[in-house]
Design a protein that fits this description.
2 domains, about 180 residues, two-stranded parallel ribbon, Arc Repressor Mutant, subunit A, 3-stranded antiparallel beta sheet
């Protein structure tokens, strides 16, 4: 994995790149970073990836990631994305992560709504698990998924980050609860 530190007004994020793209994004806080270290990383093939391996275009991926993160932290949808390496996820998790990217900034969905979108209305808990396993939070906006009760639910970066990201996007949590 290749590490890039991305400076933002909200702190320094850590982006990890495999030979296939952005594989993990960690929040600035040490607490969130230590939680993210336990996530499954894409497998590393030692025959094709030496410790100093740098994929072609890595510097471009880093620049695109920094721009996309800047847009997301400003409450906007990124205009361009780095390639995303979701090889560490299951098929179901990858389906959830794709669905997360379809939720526009400033909008939320419940775990149950997202499960229904995937054609599996009884899979709300599994959707929650996939959100928790999301290796690229913020860019893959699992913070936009809330509990059916109107509560925040969980978040890998901590609830303070979830509140902050939703506030940046203009989500009024009290109003969102009333709309359910």
């Amino acid at each position: 994995m290749n590490l890039a530190r991305i400076q933002t007004p909200l702190g320094t994020f850590r982006a990890y790149f495999s030979a296939h793209g952005l594989a993990r994004l960690e929040f600035p806080s040490a607490r969130a970073a230590s939680r993210n270290k336990t996530r499954r990383l894409p497998p590393s093939n030692s025959k094709t990836q030496a410790p100093d391996f740098q994929p072609a275009g890595l510097h471009v991926w880093q620049a695109v990631t920094a721009k996309a993160l800047g847009a997301a932290l400003s409450g906007h949808a990124p205009k361009a994305w780095p390639p995303l390496d979701w090889s560490g996820g299951t098929d179901f998790q990858r389906r959830v992560w794709v669905a997360l990217r379809r939720i526009p900034p400033g909008q939320t969905r419940t775990y149950a709504q997202l499960a229904a979108t995937l054609g599996q209305p009884r899979a709300a808990r599994a959707v929650g698990g996939a959100c928790g396993a999301n290796p690229i939070p913020v860019l893959v906006p699992c913070h936009r998924v809330t509990a059916a009760s109107g509560g925040l639910g969980g978040f890998s970066g901590g609830l303070a980050w979830k509140r902050r990201l939703l506030a940046i996007e203009g989500v009024n949590l009290r109003r969102a609860r009333k709309l359910r």
